[in-house]
TrEMBL record, chains A, B:
<dbReference type="GO" id="GO:0003700">
    <property type="term" value="F:DNA-binding transcription factor activity"/>
</dbReference>
<dbReference type="GO" id="GO:0003677">
    <property type="term" value="F:DNA binding"/>
</dbReference>
<feature type="domain" description="HTH arsR-type">
    <location>
        <begin position="3"/>
        <end position="96"/>
    </location>
</feature>
<dbReference type="InterPro" id="IPR001845">
    <property type="entry name" value="HTH_ArsR_DNA-bd_dom"/>
</dbReference>
<dbReference type="InterPro" id="IPR051081">
    <property type="entry name" value="HTH_MetalResp_TranReg"/>
</dbReference>
<dbReference type="InterPro" id="IPR036388">
    <property type="entry name" value="WH-like_DNA-bd_sf"/>
</dbReference>
<protein>
    <submittedName>
        <fullName>Transcriptional regulator, ArsR family</fullName>
    </submittedName>
</protein>
<keyword id="KW-0804">Transcription</keyword>
<keyword id="KW-0805">Transcription regulation</keyword>
<dbReference type="Pfam" id="PF12840">
    <property type="entry name" value="HTH_20"/>
</dbReference>
<keyword id="KW-0238">DNA-binding</keyword>
<dbReference type="InterPro" id="IPR036390">
    <property type="entry name" value="WH_DNA-bd_sf"/>
</dbReference>
<dbReference type="InterPro" id="IPR011991">
    <property type="entry name" value="ArsR-like_HTH"/>
</dbReference>
DNA sequence: ACATCAATTAGACACATATCGAAACGTCGA
DNA sequence: TCGACGTTTCGATATGTGTCTAATTGATGT
């Protein structure tokens, strides 16, 4: 696992991203089906009682925080969990 | 270090508590001066550009999340970091 | 070209919350 | 008892944000 050094701003983005329960659920879902290909966006939607618009918003936040990577392919968007970012945040918390 | 099992609700409270940068600063400050006695509230205030009212509010949130323990003694309030809670949250994140 | 479908954007709304000033509360020393 | 001091509570305000509907974009198959 590569090591990432996070700025205060990035820490803040991650903390905010993790503060919404729905986003955490989404993260978990992406983390479970963690094939390299990434999880299709609509796949997530079928498991979360939420509009496509809302889901899109959450994914943008997760991406902004560096917690996921969005690979757009044609009309699809495949999500991949960026574990190094999550790990770096845990390291930050450990240092408190 | 004792182990704590957190409910979904508690996880959410912790995540929200950690989502505010000022609260994280406060946590750090409490964590540093981590003598068993606890850090006096006014000590924190002298390092954070914030009103007593606001500080009180943040401490209530941190306590609600189980991240600190407030020992009131006379007119003073001594804060102590509850590391087991923080650890439990990190364990939760690790399981994502 | 057209219809369809996945995803995004725009705009609106409701609700949460970080912050403050002012007032109240409780403790302690004079 | 009185005043000072640390802390809390109250009420108000401004900002942030999760959610929706509707409209838009972009790709794909017929």
């Amino acid at each position: 696992m590569e090591t990432v050094q996070l700025s205060t701003k990035e820490i803040q983005l991650i903390a905010k991203a993790l503060a919404d329960p729905r986003r955490v659920e989404i993260l978990k879902q992406i983390g479970e089906g963690c094939c390299d290909a990434g999880l299709p966006c609509s796949n997530i939607r079928s498991c979360q009682p939420v509009t496509a618009a809302t889901l899109s918003h959450h994914m943008k936040e997760l991406e902004r925080a560096g917690l996921i990577e969005i690979a757009r392919e044609g009309k699809f968007a495949n999500l991949k969990l960026r574990r190094p970012t999550l790990q770096a945040y845990m390291d930050y918390l450990k240092a408190i």
